[in-house]
Amino acid sequence: MLKKLEEIGGERVLVDSDVLIDYLRGKKESKELIVYLLENSKCYLTPINIAEIYSGKDLSDPQKEFIVDNFLKNFNLILLDKEVSKLTGALRREYDLPLADAFIGAVCLIYDLILVTRNIRDFQKISSLKIYRPY
């Protein structure tokens, strides 16, 4: 697990839903982190992250949905394909992960991304996964 923010400057990162939701809720630590990452790293997300974000009840408000739509345009989207799906199944089987976490872990492994997340409990089971816990 990476310990310092500087270790991910210039790297390719997948920002997990928990950190993105913190940003959208105005959490100071997340705002500083996201600004740093967008300025210093190549940032990605997956359809899983998007679904998790849009499942929030407050996004039934069109104005909030518009804000989220524009915010997410800052990130590159990695689509889920057969290779990702096969590795997802293997990770789920081996580590007993929730499906969404297994997809995110598989994407990070296949695309060699650092996962930026507060939810390390399940992800730390995957020893080859690079994880940064921001706060």
Write the layout of secondary structure elements.
Layout: E1 12-15, H1 17-24, H2 28-40, E2 42-45, H3 47-54, H4 62-72, E3 76-77, H5 82-95, H6 99-111, E4 114-116, H7 120-123, E5 131-132
Parallel strand pairs: 1-2, 1-4, 2-3, 4-5
Helix pairs in contact: 1-2, 5-6
Task: Provide a short characterization of the protein structure.
With 135 residues, the chain is of the alpha/beta class. It is built from seven helices and five strands.
Describe this structure in words.
With 135 residues, the chain is an alpha/beta fold. The protein is built from seven helices and five strands. The protein has helices spanning 17-24, 28-40, 47-54, 62-72, 82-95, 99-111, 120-123, and strands spanning 12-15, 42-45, 76-77, 114-116, 131-132. Strands 3-2-1-4-5 form a five-stranded parallel β-sheet, with helices on both faces. Helix 7 links the parallel strand 4 and strand 5 (131-132). The longest helix has 14 residues, at 82-95. The relative contact order is 0.21. The mean pLDDT is 94.
